[in-house]
Amino acid sequence: MEYDVAFVGLGYVGLSSAVCFADRGINVLGVDIDAKKLGMIKKLNSPIHEKNINELLEKSIKKKKLSLSKELKDVTKAKIIFLTVGTPSRKDGSIDLKYINQASKDIGIAIKNVQEYFVIVVKSTVVPGTTLRIIENLEKYSGKKNSIDFGVVVNPEFLQEGNAINDSLKPDKVVLGINSEKDKKIMFNLFKKIYRKNLPIVYTTPSNAELIKYANNSLLATKISFMNYIARIAEQIPDGDVEEIKNAIGMDKRISESFLNAGLGFGGSCFPKDVKALIAFSKELNINSDILQSVLTINDTQFMSVFNVLNKELGALEGKKISILGLSFKPETDDIRDAISLKIIKKLLDKKAIVKVYDPIANNNVKDIYGKSISYSSNSESCIKGSECCIIVTEWKEFKSLKPKDFIRLMKRPLIIDGRRIFSKKKFNKLEYHAIGLG
Ligand code: NAD
User: Fold this and answer.
1) Is the CB of 85 under 6 A from ligand 1?
2) What is the pLDDT along the chain (439 residues), one digit of tens a residue?
3) Which atom of ligand 1 is nearest to the CA of 106?
4) Mutational pocket test of ligand 1: of 36, 96, 174, 269, the residue with most ligand atoms within 8 Å of the beta carbon
5) Is residue 421 a contact partner of residue 437, using CB atoms and an 8 Å limit?
6) Active-site residue numbers?
7) Which among 123, 124, 122, 125 is positioned nearest to 135, based on CA atoms?
8) How far is ligand 1, taken at its centre, from the CA of residue 99, in Å?
9) Is the shortest distance between the CB of 335 and ligand 1 below 6 Å?
10) Ligand 1 atom closest to Cα of residue 16
């Protein structure tokens, strides 16, 4: 076989994994139907922003460890085929499997006349039972038999955008939903070339592997919404400060200190969609999911805390100059899918405010949505200049270096809403400083 591995779908997960595998000496084929994306990758220009991705991409292509194709039929040149296509939400929140269905049909057709044994790896996030449907599709279109002519395993991805390369090479764990010893051996032989020796591999059934991914993300989302709920309480009590509560409860090993930051809520392409998909899946099973519904309700309303402050301090917003620092859904990425910044901008424009924004790398993505209805700055100082309120929406490191004197010198009125608790309340108390979870 020409390639060890193929990735079907070169988005955040597919491209990050492809360059990491190639860097470990694996012969990789990357396939995507998006010609524009493929064109950029061929020109060694990663369509996604991730630390070290361009360097790895250049190295992999120059060393001929990564090849590219827009033809799905080319996957038959690889022994192991990873499915890394998107699994977005439908309008009702349930998972939309159109890309998975199309790709599994096309793979089925492609492997029809091939003699070799393949393993198809479901890396995309899919609700329990989906892999069975993928197998049905593969059998239907190839005329071949699962476990005899090909194997299917589930290997959910846990990488965090902004740290995708590091997470792909050094994950905390690898989960493998697997039914046969043969597939286990094939996957183990691949993974031992990529991951550290003592990496915990969790072997389980395909359905459990599918559910592990949803349980993982839904619990992280729950921690965030829980802390935002505590923040709302802290804001109403004298001297309340959610940061002090976070620091204390984070010392409890049973809780751990991560994902306890109160803020304007979570966004991105995973948490909102995965929580919604798990709710919709529970509904099919007649299982009450009030717990996750509350996680979403808190998250959907959390950004309104900004407008509570604005109403109180500025009254009607028509003609008021508001600056926004941070647009991406989290730092170190230019991804704005489901970003909180978009909701805030929309509401500010509805209220006829004059909006100026700055993000170190995501300005252009927001320009594609809001065009000329807002203005874009090339640095934080020019963004806050002349504004009557500055809202910190994403906790980019560079914003932390802004000092109270910068806001006083540059803003028309130094009113700050720290939506991510990046500033010290002691240093900022001479300004009009409002922060999530600060009473
Ligand atoms: P993405 O939208 O960035 O990329 C998906 C890619 O698949 C696109 O480039 C699209 O053109 C391509 N594609 C669609 N149909 C195709 C087909 N038939 N053949 C070839 N290519 C095709 O998605 P993503 O963010 O990389 O997510 C992929 C999956 O991984 C999703 O299920 C997601 O939930 C999961 N996941 C994502 C992350 C993350 O941080 N983005 C983390 C963990 C898991």
Assistant:
1) yes
2) 899 999 999 999 999 999 999 999 999 999 999 999 999 999 999 999 999 999 999 999 999 999 999 999 999 999 999 999 999 999 999 999 999 999 999 999 999 999 999 999 999 999 999 999 999 999 999 999 999 999 999 999 999 999 999 999 999 999 999 999 999 999 999 999 999 888 999 999 999 999 999 999 999 999 999 999 999 999 999 999 999 999 999 999 999 999 999 999 999 999 999 999 999 999 999 999 999 999 999 999 999 999 999 999 999 999 999 999 999 999 999 999 999 999 999 999 999 999 999 999 999 999 999 999 999 999 999 999 999 999 999 999 999 999 999 999 999 999 999 999 999 999 998 899 999 999 9
3) 18
4) 269
5) yes
6) 270
7) 122
8) 9
9) no
10) 26
Query: How far is residue 291's CA from residue 138's CA, in Å, rounded to a whole number?
Result: 36
270 lines ligand 1 (CB under 6 A): yes
Q: What is the pTM of this model?
A: 0.96
Phi/psi for 278 (5° steps) reads -70, -35
Q: Quick check: CB of 330 below 6 Å from ligand 1? A: no
Q: How many CB atoms lie within 10 A of CB 303?
A: 21
The finding on whether 102 has its CB within 6 A of some atom of ligand 1 is yes
Element (H, E) at 307: helix 304-314
DSSP string, 379-390: SHHHHHTT-SEE
